[in-house]
Design a protein that fits this description.
Elements (H helix, E strand, L loop, with lengths): L1 H13 L9 E2 L12 E6 L4 E6 L12 H10 L7 E3 L27 E3 H11 L2 H11 L4 H15 L21 H11 L3 H7 L3 E2 L17 E2 L16 E9 L3 E10 L2 E10 L11 H16 E7 L6 E4 L8 E6 L3 E6 L8 E6 L12 E9 L2 E10 L7 H11 L4 H32 L24
Parallel strand pairs: 1-3
Antiparallel strand pairs: 2-3, 2-10, 4-5, 6-7, 8-9, 9-10, 11-14, 12-13, 13-17, 15-16, 16-17
Helix pairs in contact: 2-4, 2-5, 3-4
């Protein structure tokens, strides 16, 4: 029974990961420039990218790699409450890096007993290198490189084209890189499961199974999300923000992936390589300032607009063999409403109409006869089916003339010719055969088995005198 329960829980965790998201792109201009070198703004209600900047330039992700680390762990676990005893030797080598200041600790010590769930929270909220390395060691069956291989395999499966992982912690490595577009895809993939989203958007967390020898006061051991937009006491607080992951690399700037919700709209921003300091060398959080600016821009400048209505008559197309009117009107099969930038007129949307070139009656109202492709600035927005507005009856006189006219060039005409020739040949052969048989019947032929005739003895008449 326990095995069955574990299997069910495993499927609940894994199933949402099965499909990935390929977002549609519409690049609208910002009100104010941002300092981050690469960026993407994604409406996660419709999976539409409404702005991007250097989205395909390779950047160092830092601890944003923890998102992929979490994906691999969640896809390979059946029990989030399984306990793991932390072994310092698994992550002690990280302390020798020249970029030691980039490491973030959750005060996890050798011998601490934590659940997989605890370690995921520590990693996602604080970028704990202890938690990330411990999880990778556990799910890599004692081989960190094997775990990293799974990370790269999953990135390729999701559709990432410019991502390479070399470690699960995010520690500096010039061979570890990604792009804003790839990180948006990875994050949306991870968000397909509520388990990841709940962990990544939690403000603070208290581990469930502490080691009281290392942590005397359990209530003081609380992990807080590193995204300051969630902190109401911070100058960077942003109402509605849900911070998924932050990252800092001394050699590559600050990164952040954050989510925010307002008035039923939900957005995700991905920002890479924001400067750490200003021109005067003062420490700055430009990545958070950029995130707030992008959220304000998105919430203030976008609304849902009716791009195409269902009753709109889009085109008039000719119909052959029609009784009466030789045309039919086309309309969209369904209305199309889209999130649209208030500063751009919907009249700028190009409507490319394609319909069948050889339309013949009868036609039923609602029958699909074509498509309409909507594009803006060369980017496809949507493809909408076009259907007939009304019925079109067939004219039998036109149809009969059409059939007669086309009979000689039709497939059936050639079949009829072939069948006729074959039947004629068969008839000729039958005639020849009948003639031969008739001639042979009239020809006298002496049978070889005929018996010789025997002469009958002639009776002589006796003389009356006799």
């Amino acid at each position: 029974m326990k095995k069955v329960t574990s299997l069910i829980l495993s499927l609940i965790i894994i199933m949402p990961f099965i499909s990935s998201i390929n977002a549609q792109t519409l690049n609208f201009p910002l009100d104010d420039p941002i300092k981050s070198e690469s960026a993407i703004v994604l409406n996660i209600d419709n999976d539409i990218i409404i702005h991007e900047k250097n989205a395909d330039i390779k950047q160092m992700p830092g601890s944003l790699v923890n998102i992929m680390t979490a994906i691999i762990c969640l896809e390979n676990t059946r029990d989030l409450n399984k306990e793991i005893t932390v072994d310092k030797s698994v992550y002690s080598e990280l302390l020798d890096t020249q970029y030691y200041d980039d490491l973030r600790s959750a005060e996890i010590y050798d011998g601490d007993v934590l659940t997989i769930n605890d370690l995921l929270y520590a990693m996602m909220l604080t970028s704990s290198y202890e938690a990330a390395q411990t999880l990778a060691y556990h799910f890599g069956d004692g081989d960190i490189s094997a775990f990293v291989a799974k990370m790269n395999e999953k990135a390729a499966e999701i559709g990432c084209k410019n991502t390479n992982f070399t470690n699960p912690t995010g520690v500096y490595d010039e061979n570890q890189y990604t792009t804003a577009r790839d990180m948006a895809m990875i994050t949306r993939y991870a968000m397909n499961t509520s388990v990841f989203t709940n962990i990544a958007t939690t403000k603070e967390y208290n581990p469930s199974v502490p080691n009281l020898n290392n942590h005397k006061n359990h209530n003081d051991w609380i992990w807080t999300h590193s995204n300051l937009m969630m902190d109401e006491e911070s100058d960077y607080y942003y109402r509605g923000a849900k911070g998924i992951k932050t990252a800092n690399l001394t050699a590559a700037g600050r990164n952040i992936i954050a989510m925010a919700s307002k008035d039923g709209h939900n957005y995700l921003v991905v920002l890479l390589k924001a400067p750490i300091r200003d021109a005067d060398g003062k420490n700055q959080f430009y990545h958070i300032e950029d995130a707030k600016s992008l959220f304000n821009w998105a919430f203030s400048n976008f609304s849902y607009r009716d791009i195409v209505t269902e009753s709109e008559e889009i085109a008039e197309v000719s119909v052959e063999l029609a009784e009466g009117s030789d045309y039919v009107l086309l309309r969209p099969e369904a209305a199309y409403t889209a999130l649209w930038y208030d500063g751009a007129e919907t009249s700028l949307i190009k409507k490319d109409i394609q319909y069948k070139s050889d339309i013949k009656a009868p036609i039923k109202a609602g029958e699909k006869l074509g498509v309409m492709q909507l594009t803006y600035s060369g980017e496809e927005i949507a493809t909408i089916d076009l259907v007939a507005v009304s019925d079109v009856e067939r004219s039998m006189s036109k149809f009969n003339f059409y059939v007669a006219k086309r009979f000689k060039s039709s497939e059936w005409f050639m079949k009829a010719i072939i069948i006729s020739v074959v039947l004629c040949l068969v008839y000729i052969m039958l005639c020849v055969y009948s003639f031969v048989c008739y001639k042979n019947r009239n020809k006298s032929v002496k049978p070889i088995y005929a018996m010789p005739k025997v002469a009958k003895k002639r009776k002589t008449r006796k003389n009356k005198d006799d």
